[in-house]
Amino acid sequence: MVMLVILRLMPVFDKRNGSFLAGACLAVWAFVFFLDRAGYHSLNLAAYSNILGILGTLNLIVAASILGRALATGLMRPAEFVPVCLVAAATDLASVLAGPTQKIAGILESYYTGPMTTPPPIVDYFLIKTPVWGAPYLMPLFGVSDLVFLVLLSTGAEKFKINDRFLNIPVAGLGLFFGVFMAHSTMLFVPGMPLMVLFFLPVVLFQSPGARKLHRSDIAYSILFPAIIFMGVRLFQF
Q: Could you state, in order of their start, the residue ranges of all structural domains in the chain?
């Protein structure tokens, strides 16, 4: 469902209305945030929280579509997918293993496994959520940054006329939802970006000869930045 909404919305966000919609998204996020926290103690109703959660999720989908398309304009060559993908995957993996995402996961786990009678942590307002059978509240699927990265990859593929679709679904999206399936099956926090890269990058390299024409800078970025990221996380444990 999330993927269908994104595919419908992506062509709408051009330079003419992107700035306006970005401002509107920020206003809606603030509205949801303050209204949710203000009403929690007075109402404390699942329906109230879920309505705001649905509004917040739709707003994050729009915001991610805008930002992802904007970031894709910075891609000049198909080969740039290689360093972009490897750096993003390394950053996400390092963050989950020993970085800020590990701390965030602990905060969210404590909240969602608890009574949920207090306002959610601030990071909860940056999560894409969905109804789950038997659960009174919406449950998180993944973070908005995963969605931004998905739109970036799919928009970039469209820009370079690379077919990244399987059954009209971006293969990076299949990787993301495979990660969601793994997370819910194993009850572990699974980073989404490495799986998106695993599904997306082989397709791009196979279909686009230009993606295989790496410059020296592409190779350097692909090696140095992931190494620096892992070393940094190792040295500065969060």
A: 2-235
